[in-house]
Amino acid sequence: MATTHHNGARRNDTRQSASSRHHRARKKQMPLGAQWLKDFLSEMLAVELGGVKLYEKALNELQHPELERKLTEFLRQTQGHVELCAEMLDAVAGDQGYRSPGAMAADHKAEGLLSAQAPPELTDLNNIENLVLAETKDHWDWEMLASVAARIGDPNLKRMASSAIQEVRKQEEAHLSWNEQTLSKLAMELATGTSEHEGAEESQSME
Fold this sequence. Notes:
This protein is mostly helical. The protein has helices spanning 2-29, 34-60, 68-93, 101-115, 123-148, 155-192, 196-206. α2 runs antiparallel to α3 (68-93) and α2 packs parallel to α4 (101-115).
């Protein structure tokens, strides 16, 4: 009797395990909702457009000329991201001008960052901090798109998304990393009262 009971328990466990694997497999294969994808790509486009404005503001108000090259490079790349997002949105919605609720929220957030005022000595720090915030969201957006790209039902859009992800992902990692590091350098400059350039000159004079 005990042996029969144990065999029955094992069969139940096996059936439950198989059912669980089948459920997980079905869950992985479920396609994305068309409306969700349309809304998400609309929001991605809005975030990238906000990023363009933030880079332009940082360059227009720049007080540390050594930052200009990277900011200009990232602005150009972000403009490219805008084009990619617009093309994907057009493919899924048939209208690059479609505005989702998330996109409108992203607009409001970007407007808040763009309107934030800082005293002259904090201008670059403020602008780079805004870029850290924007690039954090940008980076997450592209990672999220990468995580769901395999579930995109439309083959053409899936190819577009895969190609865009391959092009943009490393750029987004570089944008976020550089802005975070630059923010720390600017904060240290204020904390010590010495710029990185001045620190290098002082080090050379001591040699």
